[in-house]
Design brief:
Helices cover 28% and strands 25% of the residues. It is of the alpha/beta class. It binds pyridoxal-5'-phosphate (PLP). It catalyses: meso-2,6-diaminopimelate + H(+) = L-lysine + CO2.
């Protein structure tokens, strides 16, 4: 489905004309489509629905907006969290603790204790010592912590180096060659209820082959662990499926992914957990911005918009591409460099791009910003955090106000202090 389309020459979000949002809320603003979110969430869970006792834990880091999380909770999703802050967000959104998975390579003792007290469903362990500390924390509470071991399968996800996580030298997971011995040792800890393994080899993966290779290695490991007498009841296959950012991008279909998973895991006799992030929210959001200036440049004119790397960091971080489009295009194009106002040479959204012709004051959007967009926002240059709007049919609501830097700082809850 395409929630962002032109009607009578004006770009809409569902039934709402984008200039109406700009008038009411100002720019820049992140705009989400509720029906696109529901559609993506249901498409994913129904594609995997044939798999035995599948669970869906949305990777909160992709979009931690509470309204987004609430909508996904209504679609049957739990959460994959990587911090105490995300635990709070998931719970505020009404996600049941049992449906929360705690990933991440640097969980602090405090975060693990809070997650234990909340009664979350699964800890994904990253190293042996973490497992021992978690076991102690659980024993102190007279409990056993439900956990799986995150394994690094030594497979390159094939995407950008900064978002590939499954190579041996990456910081994530334990080396698959020593995983069975490590599992033996952790399984002897009284405070742990170890019930399987997890992996996640990276993000924006555009080819099923690396996922398939990684899952195959996990299958071999499961056989080995069972031969050593362990009860393996759950395997967490992570997230990572890519989305088309460029018109020519071709991504594996959900049906192909589901068929690959079904075929490979048929004999595993485990419940599967999925941790999709980008594929759920990525295409359901846009960043609406206004052109501040068109400045003559040495090679191309510079289209300077009011959105910056502080609203959308992916281009500056990973050279990521986000399609730029005018809200009321006149049918002509120009070649330009797209820049934000932040005082960083890297605050660019594209160099020498062919775009809809725009001039000072025009509205435009960056497409596919619903994942890792607002989630990575900062107040660098003392810029406010941009507001976020949810469109549902012909109505829209502000689901997060614009926050000035003093508001952001004063909103820091005391509970995050050590
Ligand atoms: C980031 C992350 C995900 C989600 O990745 P996507 O590419 O957004 O699907 C899932 N699991 C873990 C452990 C992650 O770090």
């Amino acid at each position: 489905m395409n929630a962002f389309d032109y009607r009578d020459g004006v770009l809409h979000a569902e039934d709402v004309a984008l200039p109406a949002i700009a008038d009411a809320v100002g720019t820049p603003v992140h705009v989400y489509s509720a029906s696109a979110l529901r559609h993506a969430a249901r498409a994913f869970s129904s594609a995997m629905g044939g798999l035995s006792s599948a669970r869906f834990a949305f990777a909160v880091k992709a979009n931690p907006n509470t309204a987004v999380l609430r909508l996904l909770a209504d679609c049957g999703y739990g959460a994959d969290i990587v911090s105490g802050g995300e635990l709070r967000r998931a719970r505020e959104a009404g996600m049941a603790p049992a449906d929360i998975v705690f990933s991440g390579v640097g969980k602090t003792d405090r975060e693990m204790a809070d997650a234990l007290d909340a009664g979350i469903g699964q800890f994904n362990l990253e190293l042996e010592e973490e497992g021992r500390v978690l076991a102690q924390l659980a024993s102190l509470r007279g409990r056993r912590a439900p956990a799986v071991l995150r394994v690094n399968p030594d497979v390159d996800g094939g995407s950008h180096a900064k978002i590939t996580t499954g190579r041996r030298e990456s910081k994530f997971g334990v080396d698959i060659t020593s995983a069975a011995d490590l599992y033996d040792r952790l399984a002897r800890c009284d405070g742990l209820e170890l019930h399987g393994v997890a992996l996640h080899i990276g993000s924006q993966i555009s080819d099923l082959a690396p996922l398939e290779a990684a899952y195959r290695r996990i299958g071999t490991l499961i056989v080995e662990l069972r031969a050593r007498g362990h009860h393996i009841t759950r395997v967490d296959l992570g997230g990572g499926l890519g989305i088309p950012y460029r018109p020519e991008d071709r991504m594996p279909s959900l049906a192909d992914y589901a068929a690959m998973v079904a075929g490979l895991t048929r004999g595993w006799d485990v419940g599967l957990t999925f941790e999709p992030g980008r594929i759920i929210t990525g295409l359901a959001g846009i960043l609406l911005t206004r052109v501040t200036w068109v400045k003559p440049g040495a090679i191309h004119p510079l289209v300077i918009v009011d959105a910056a790397m502080t609203d959308l960091a992916r281009p500056a971080l990973y050279n990521a591409y986000h399609r730029f489009a005018a809200v009321t295009p006149d049918g002509t194009t120009m070649t330009a460099t797209l820049a934000g106002p932040v005082c960083e040479t890297g605050d660019l959204f594209g160099v020498g791009r062919s775009i809809d012709r725009v001039g000072r004051g025009d509205l435009a959007v960056f497409h596919a910003t619903g994942a890792y967009g607002s989630a990575m926002a900062s107040i660098y240059n003392c810029r406010p955090l941009s507001p976020q709007v949810m469109v549902d049919g012909g109505a829209f609501t502000i689901v997060r106000d614009r926050l000035s830097p003093p508001e952001v700082l004063s909103a820091t809850p005391a509970a995050t202090a050590p």
